[in-house]
Amino acid sequence: MTADTSHTSVQDALRDAAWISPAETGSTEAGNRPAYWLRGSFTWPPGTRDAGSSANERAVVHATAHGIYELFVNGTRVGNDELTPGFTSYRKRLQVQRWDITDLLVRGENVVAALLSDGWFRGRHGFERRADGFGTETAFLASVTNATATQTFLATSQSWLCRESHLTRADLMDGQTTDFRRLDPAWLNPSGSAGQTRTTADGWVPVVRPAGPLHEDRTRLVLPVSPPARRIGEIRPVRMTAPAPGITVVDFGQNINGWVRLGNLGPEGTRTVLRHGEVLDTAGLVSLENIRAFNFATKTPLPAGQVDEVVSAGRPDDAFEPRHTTHGFRYVQVEGRSGTLAAEDITAVVVHTPLDRTGWFGCSDPRLNALHDAISWSFRGNACDVPTDCPQRERSGFTGDWQVFVDTAALLFDVAAFSDKWLRDLAADQWPDGRVPTVVPNPAGNGPSGNAFEDMAAGSAGWGDAAVLVPWSLWRAYGDRQALARAFPSMHGWVDYAAAAAAGGRHPERSGRRPAPLAHERFLWDTGFHFGEWLEPDSPPNPDPSRDHGIVATAYLFRSAGVLARAAEVLEDAAAAAKYAALARQVLAAWRTEYLDGNGILREESQGHYVRALAFGLVPDELAPQTAARLVELIRANGNRLGTGFLATGLLLPVLADHGYADVAYDLLLSAGTPSWLGMLEAGATTMWEWWDGVTEQGARGSLNHYSKGAVGSFLYTHLAGIRLPADPAEAEAAYRRLAIAPQPGGGITSASAAVVTPRGRISVAWTLEHGRFTLGVDLPNGVEATVKLPDGSTRLVTGGSHQFSAWNQPVSSLLI
């Protein structure tokens, strides 16, 4: 089914439905608003009164909301999707869910009810936890039709009723409070109701009809292109302690995104509080200090949220499972229960988008296997409908995070549809001048929000470049030409913006040093706000708009212009290919003139700058050896420790290995302490940290589930195991049609294996190293061509099938000395 056909069918199915909102009688304070029931009923079966209907008719519901909703038919929850309708750029793209509910219907009256809460639409969200990002009122839209949507059996209208629910507080970040004493199952059961004749004496009141352009625009209603968030798995406690009277702390042994299910709620009126966190304090209590954010203008700390409450009705079968919030946590502190909490009473529920696993890795060093697992868990915790930066403090789709991690993600899981959905939202929220907001979906939409920092940060290099580099990464992995074409307008919109920003101004410091601009400066992007390398070790974050990040921003302008030119070639747009290739050449020349001397040394030195220069091809081939050697000097001078931050960390080890310093790459990969990946694991990490020193003897800081530094996972596949895609593949090479198998053993590792499920089929590699002899096995699907490069320097060209190779683990020339 084409996108247009799907789009039309959604509109047809909802043609008789009107937007409805609850009459809000509870708290209107952000973070403390209750969820509401909305309820309608209809008679089934439709009979033969209307032409085209029959007793064998199917009943299909289409539903969506401003907020998040759960749908019930006769008291039974519909489907297994969570957090519907999902997170999108609601002003332009609102997803509609579709279910066949025939098997839930009974003869006679049937009740359809929605439990509606704030969700992303108007709940507290983002670093500053602002509410009402997309609107000030929740709303619901639904209809029940036959399978062809030619007959409507029930549609949302002013005949529906509403009331406050037993969810007395429901916020996606702050948490959920459920009072089971306020839940009457008869509300949802036709046998215990009087249909739509309920009165205000029962607590039911007529719904409200919202008005405004957003409700009138049906063109934004779309079917999902990516699977919804779901309950993926469950984790049992690994340890339970009682650090204080009336308090039990539960350790699930793994940092996750989701919630807990709590049973045995106690006698009626028992109030239990659950605090969710990633770390314990010195007293053994759950600490939330590391995930507290602050107001940018006032620096006032903000509440951390992640607190749930449940009040028991005394019914033995009741279980608390807060589906209108999510938390990032490993530990839960349970307060207020009478008696001992048993391990069987509490379970952690893992919630995220159900992505098919495509990558497997293992090697002789168990520390790297643990690192691989932590990277995978970190991504899973941040793949909750959109690629987020962290599942606790912000839960925002930061563009820079996905830009640096998408290549690793595409090795671990099938992220094609997941990313396609997000890129559609990026295009929807892209500003008219082409700049890209820092987070997508963006509550402010495709323009300024009025928040000074947010508006200043929109268009930061390395973040906005996600508009170009993410589609290209997906092209490399999946080869979907249609998806690349869909992203192309957004891609060139970003590059046009960045090029115009470069040509439109000079940094004041440069103007002071050189009043008369040189010709190349119109291709230097040294103005505007940029995050820069961000969170380098021992470098406090400094979001200073006056700082000159030209060496970073110009590098990204070159990379994105070049990628855009190659995308245009794939799409057979010769004019665009020529235009952006010329731009890339001009930007490259400007970068070299300004930042590189004739000996391959940068005029602004840092590990990140050198890594980027080599990874992006900014250094001429003849100078690359000197540049790489200088990078190694900086590493050695830093005590053999990495000094990269957000943007360059994932590129660091491949750059070193590709320029003849695989030994240095393995030294860094296998180093301990701070900063290092294994140092995180030694300190107890089960996911990647935002800060290299996220947990020290002084305590914890920042998110302990931030996947960006986990971009090192690519190295495990591409260099340690050796499965490598071309950097800039043509159509005949993309999606693993052609690849290289080039393992680079090192670090004392004696065996490694990896497999990747590709659009062509499963590719697997396994090697062992014994007494200097390297043995390699490769399995390729039919139609795949691989160049196998062995450690002795020899190469083989192979196609589909199983292949075995053996060689010495050193270049042939060294054996002759």
Automatic annotation (TrEMBL):
It is an enzyme of class 3 (hydrolase). The keyword Cytoplasm does not apply. It comes from the Bacteria. Residues 245-352 form the Alpha-L-rhamnosidase concanavalin-like domain. InterPro entries: 6-hairpin_glycosidase_sf, 6hp_glycosidase-like_sf, Alpha_rhamnosid, Bac_rhamnosid6H, Bac_rhamnosid_C, Bac_rhamnosid_N, Galactose-bd-like_sf, Rhamnosid_concanavalin. GO terms for molecular function: alpha-L-rhamnosidase activity. The keyword Chaperone does not apply. This is alpha-L-rhamnosidase.
